[in-house]
Design a protein that fits this description.
- The protein is mostly helical.
- It is built from nine helices and no strands.
- Helix 3 packs parallel to helix 8 and helix 5 runs antiparallel to helix 6.
Length: 205
């Protein structure tokens, strides 16, 4: 593939990516220009759980867009497989962490979705709520393939093992339509349980 010289403009090569926010960036709504990301400042949530929840929603929305691109045949499924699975998985890791007490959430090295789901369920039970067993089972299923949040990121799966240590089938298939529905159900179940995220959305739990 030949690269066009027009790609290498002075702006593309030298304009800073991260610029101070100013009045030039104001807009009447999210669909008007200039389009861009605001990082830090007033966009920063005031508490860690709310931040985790907001980030979880971003990752989930990005995963949904990739799945939509596949279904609309704008991109081939194999081209974005790991990216979509990583986005879904990371959104659930953040959602689970958002529902944990600050002292537990502070342990940054907790990435195992199965352990997170059990800790999440334990703390919800102490608050008088019950996490459906299928939620924990689904998190275990994701953890079996990507226990440390590295398999989908780097494509280094090793030999996937079940919870009891039994090796899983080396080659597996993920049905896109089933994935979309299953991930939507898991997302809805975790958001429903998390009053901080719902309050951030303006809902009343």
């Amino acid at each position: 593939m030949r690269i066009s010289a027009d790609l290498f403009t002075k702006e593309a090569m030298s304009r800073p990516l991260f610029e101070p926010l100013s009045g030039e960036h104001e807009r009447p709504d999210e669909w008007s220009g200039p389009l861009g990301f605001v990082i830090g400042g007033f966009s920063r949530p005031f508490i860690q759980a709310e931040r985790d929840g907001a980030l979880a929603e971003q990752y989930f929305a990005a995963a949904e867009e990739l799945i939509a691109a596949i279904l609309e045949k704008r991109v081939a499924d194999y081209q974005v497989a790991n990216a979509a699975l990583f986005l879904y998985r990371h959104s659930f890791e953040l959602l689970l962490k958002a529902g944990l007490p600050p002292e537990v959430r502070a342990a940054k090295d907790i990435h195992d979705l199965g352990k997170l789901a059990r800790s999440y369920a334990h703390h919800k039970q102490q608050a008088g709520k019950t996490v459906p067993p299928w939620v924990i089972k689904r998190c275990d299923e994701l953890a079996a393939l990507d226990r440390g949040s590295e398999a989908f990121r780097y494509g280094e799966y090793g030999t996937p093992k079940a919870k009891d240590g039994t090796p899983l089938i080396d080659e597996i298939h993920v049905d896109i339509l089933h994935l979309k529905v299953a991930m939507a159900a898991l997302n809805a179940a975790l958001v429903e349980q998390n009053w901080i995220i719902r309050m951030a959305r303006g809902e009343t739990p």
